[in-house]
Amino acid sequence: MLKATEEEIEEVREYFEWQAPDLEVSFMQKVYSEAILNTRHDVWDIHTNKDRWWVITGGTNLYSQEQFPNMDLALTFHIGLMLRIPRTEKQQEDDLRILPFGPVFEKMEEAGTAVTKAHNLSDYQAVGVRCREALLELIGVAQDAAMWTNTPPQRANFRAWTEVICNDLLPGDTNKERRGALKSALESAWTFSNWLTHSKSATWIDAEMAHSLIQHAIGMATSLIIRELRGVPWECPNCGSPHLEPGRGENTEAPGVLWERPQCADCGWAGRPVPILDLGDGQPIIAREGEETDECSIMTVPLRTILKPGNPSIEPLKNAETGPPEHVVYFAYGSNMSTARLRDRMPNCKPIGIATLPGHALRFHKRSVDESGKCNAFATGDENSVIGVLFSFDPTERAKLDKAEGVGSGYEHATVTVINDKGRRRKVLTYLATPNYIDDSLKPYSWYKDFVLAGGREHGLPPAYIAEYIQSVEAIEDFNKTRDKKQRATLLGGPGL
Question: Which of 71, 127, 225, 295 has its CA at 20 to 30 Å from residue 445's CA atom?
Answer without folding.
Answer: 127
